[in-house]
Amino acid sequence: MILVTGGCSFSEPISPWITTWPKHLENHINPTSSHHTGMGATSNGMISRSVIHKVSQLLKENNAKDLLVGIMWSGPDRHEVFVDKKDITESITHGMLIPGENGKSLGVYNPYNFINEDNEQAWLLLHPHNSGDTRSEAWYKHLHNKVGAYINTIEHILRTQWFLKSHSIKYFMTTYTGEVLPKTLPIKNFFKTQSNLLPELLSENKHTKHLYEQIDFDQFLPVEGEYEWCRDKSGLEFPIKNDNHPSSDQHLLFTKEVIVPFCNLSVKAQIT
After folding, report:
1. Cβ distance 72 to 6 under 8 Å?
2. How far is it, in rounded angstroms, from Cα 171 to Cα 48?
3. What is the pLDDT of residues 194-246, one digit of tens each?
4. In 146, 147, 160, 167, which residue has its Cα 20 to 30 A from 140's Cα atom?
């Protein structure tokens, strides 16, 4: 089996002493190869593109039936743009965080090695907390819209599902918190404010309803989100005060009690 995973900082360790669910899953199934495409603070567009890019590469030399893909979707308020390198004035390391003033990062340039270093274009991630980055500040001041952000996230999910289904690839999906795809409101205060939420359900909003109904939720883990499961079901404390990222033990329990049973029963990956 070949394992491909994607996500944000809930999938990519925020600290060297934290082991996240992709690594725990890799340790559990011992695949012939494992490919994690996730990165902290990434957008759902980049999660989708990175997974599709990696799977496309793997399909050139591998059978689709040998692949298992796991994706944890991130916040809908993150965004990415395709830019010319000449428009980026900072000194940037390929695939690394852009350094900003006072130790703050301004975004991510060309993550996942989508493009050769000799190319003149690259992806740039925008984030609402990238203070000091004029591009992010301009985007969130003039162009960001909550409904549009949810529309984009749903379309990224649908594109990824359709791609994986078209190749008959086994996969599962989930979210890092229920606020990514809220099925009921109100969500239990994952964020300090409810600014990311719509005033109504995605399944009822006139701009999202027709898209939301196309999502195959049978491929989603039966949880609200990993954060909510760890908070309510793990019986363990989060490792960092005022930070909602799970501990290694919480990630391990989530893998063993949620991901593995789901893969065996619903995805039929037989990874026990």
Report:
1. yes
2. 13
3. 455 565 678 888 888 899 999 999 999 999 999 999 999 999 999 988 889 99
4. 160
Task: Give the 3-state DSSP-derived string for the chain, with helices as H, strands as E and coil as C.
Answer: CEEEEECCCCCCCCCCCCCCHHHHHHHHHCCCEEEECCCCCCCHHHHHHHHHHHHHHHHCCCCHHHEEEEEEECCCCCEEEEEEHHHCCCCCCCCCEEECHHHCEEEEECHHHCCCCCCCEEEEEECCCCCCCHHHHHHHHHHCCHHHHHHHHHHHHHHHHHHHHHCCCEEEEEECCCCCCCCCCCCCCCCCCCCCCCCCCCCCCCCCHHHHCCCCHHHECCCCCHHHHHHHHCCCCCCCCCCCCCCHHHHHHHHHHHHHHHHHHHHCCCCC
Q: Do 146 and 204 contact (CB within 8 A), yes or no?
A: no
Q: In the chain, list all ranges with CATH 3.40.50.1110.
A: 2-77+146-267
β 105-108/79-84 pair status? unpaired
Longest dimension (CA), the chain: 50
At 106, the amino acid letter reads L
Q: What are phi and psi of 31, to 5 degrees?
A: -70, 165
The predicted-structure confidence for 160-200, as pLDDT tens digits, reads as follows: 999 999 999 999 999 999 888 876 544 444 444 445 556 56
Top CATH class of 2-77+146-267 equals alpha beta
Please give the model's pTM, rounded to 2 decimal places: 0.87
Query: From CA 226, how far away is CA 76, in angstroms rounded?
Result: 16
